[in-house]
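Troubleshooting log. The previous run stalled partway through. Resubmitting the same two chains, unchanged.
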Amino acid sequence: MRELAELEALLLAAHARGDRAALVACYSEAGDLLESAGQIDAACFVRTQAYVLALEAGDRATAARMYAVLVRHGREM
Amino acid sequence: MKPENFATLARVLEPVNSARGLPNAFYTDPALHEEEKKRLFAKGWPAIGFGKDVPEPGDAKPVSFLGIPLLLVRGRDGTLRVFQNVCRHRGMILVDEPIRLKGVIRCPYHAWCYELDGALRATPHVGGAGHNTHPDIDRSALGLFEVRSAVFMDIVFVNISGDAPEFRVYAADLIARAEAFADAKLFHGGPDSSFSLEVKTNWKLAAENYLESYHLPWVHPGLNSYSRLEDHYNVVEETFAGQGTLAYTPGFGPNGERFSRFPGLSPKWDKGAEYPTFFPNVLFGFQNDHCYAILIEPVAHDRTIERVEIYYASEEMTGAGFAAMREKNAAMWKSIFIEDIGVVEGMQRGRWAPAFDGGKFSPVMDPCTHAFHHWVASHFADA
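Second attempt completed without errors. Output:
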């Protein structure tokens, strides 16, 4: 698993080139990293980012996965 | 409205033999143009675009109509819907340019997400970072504002006020007149069958010029050979008026080849064609081998865009084998509509003549123009 700092750099680069698929992947990975560190609020923040971008991209599988996690943490309905 | 205009409107409502046309202010006064938006456009069924503008599921096209930001969206189920193009959160414009959406409509500001049917799907961080719900955010009540719409002959009509009769009820007289055209499968001719003209005139003058055949021998001398004035007749109904001809004899190929004919047409259309203006802003052309619609977009009280789209009766007519004939057909119509620009712009300049009293109609040649004036004036009867 990558470090957060590395993911942040990748996120900035993905934002710069408008690469939604990379954004979804990075935010999703950051969510796993933060949850494993017990940082639930931060994890839900980045998973929300991944969720919304996946919805926009029509990436139903990822959107459903993010949604399920957010619901589990009481952040979606 | 000023008292002098009110008095003149009473004359517009008289029979064509004694009536005068709409007063100058209806063409020159920006305040009256604003009033027309409410009285003529918001309450009726004006057209804002074409189904071909959003041909595939997920296609979205923003349209500014009378200053109202609208959004045409083709749903995953193929249904075309029209929304006000704003997010329910901060009123941000949702879509700025035509796009094929793969997923939801995401507001570019705070990323509220809407399904293509307008339902609010996601409200990221609305309850704080990472908290996407809040007791006071009822998504079910915060969908996009949908505008009543109807698609007829691939034209997208809207009823902004939301209280007009259903389109097919409102337009029943036009639909009956269109006969088999009304339910025909239409095939747009492609890029060579689409063009726009920007005209320095009031939108009504563009419609009025289309309403009568009186000007044909003078403005369109080229039509004399196959569309003579004496072959024309007038049709006046509640929601439309216009001219018909008994001598439609097209031939677009080098040896008189023709486009295929629409199926199910009655014998009336063998040599007949009709050109109704559906009030307020669609000018139709019904011919047995092609039809077209001109969408009149009122940009300002003295500026109008005419958007022309030409359709054929079969997919074969849209192919490369008929490209030369389609181009010839589109060029013919374009040249005719360009010939009209001089007179519609000239009438607009003429509306600054203070003594002009709306004009004296020919009882024989101008009943359609008068019907349109009457329709406009009747919507101001309580002004």
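Takeaways: Chain A has four helices and no strands. The radius of gyration of chain A is 12 Å.
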